[in-house]
Every structure is written in C-alpha cells, then in structure tokens.
C-alpha cells in the first residue's frame, strides 16, 4: 500500500505540474498579445489552480485504488512542499497567511479529487 500510495501521489503531482505549466503558457500568451492586465486574471488562475489540484488528486486516487482521501491528501502535501521549497530556497521567502489558506484549500480539493477518483475507478485490487 505504501509504495502504491507514493507512486500514485507522484502521478498526481506530475499531472498538477503539467496542467499548471500549460495554464501558465496560455495565460502568459494571452497577457502578452492582448490588452488584458494581470490583475484581471488573478481569480481565473486561482480557480484553475484549484481545478488542477483537484484533477491531480483525482488521478492519484484513481491510481491508488483505495483510500482516495489519503492519496489526494498526500498529493496536496507533496505539491505544497514543492512550492514551499521553490519559494523558500529560490526566493528566500516563507509562506504568508494567504498562501497557507490557499494551500489548505488545495488540500481539501485534492482530498475530494482522490475520493472521487477511487469511486469512479470502482475497483480495488
């Protein structure tokens, strides 16, 4: 179970990172070639981030086959650690209160994604 949980969480994180990179490319292209300002895009990108974490939890839960809440939660915690280490080691800044709230929301979204992922899969082996 431990090995399956970790590998499913890695698939979830990989899915999240791919979706976030694609969203970043699309949004930067839109910001570059239109007159839309970055302030107008903040809520859209935040919503897409929650969707990406939900999908990552969904993939993780589906791949684990059981305990989707744990697979999704593990995915969210590992994703938060990756973001924290990049921000802390790369920019020498810790999380502020707003970021802790956002990442707590990511945890909830990924847990629900993991639960739905296990239930959509429908079988455990």
TrEMBL record:
Listed A to Z, the keywords are: Membrane, Transmembrane, Transmembrane helix
| InterPro entries found in the cross-reference section | DUF3792_TM
Give TM regions: 9-31, 43-61, 68-88, 100-120
* Top-level division of the source organism's lineage: Bacteria
Could you tell me what this protein is called?
A: TIGR04086 family membrane protein
Q: Native species of this protein?
A: Evansella alkalicola
């Amino acid at each position: 179970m431990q090995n399956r949980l970790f590998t499913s969480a890695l698939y979830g994180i990989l899915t999240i990172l791919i979706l976030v990179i694609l969203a970043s490319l699309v949004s930067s292209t839109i910001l570059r070639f239109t007159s839309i300002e970055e302030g107008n895009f903040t809520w859209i990108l935040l919503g897409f981030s929650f969707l990406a974490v939900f999908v990552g939890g969904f993939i993780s839960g589906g791949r684990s086959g059981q305990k989707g809440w744990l697979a999704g939660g593990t995915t969210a915690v590992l994703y938060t650690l990756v973001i924290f280490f990049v921000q802390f080691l790369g920019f020498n800044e810790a999380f502020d209160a707003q970021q802790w709230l956002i990442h707590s929301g990511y945890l909830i979204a990924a847990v629900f994604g993991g639960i739905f992922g296990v239930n959509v899969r429908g079988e455990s082996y």
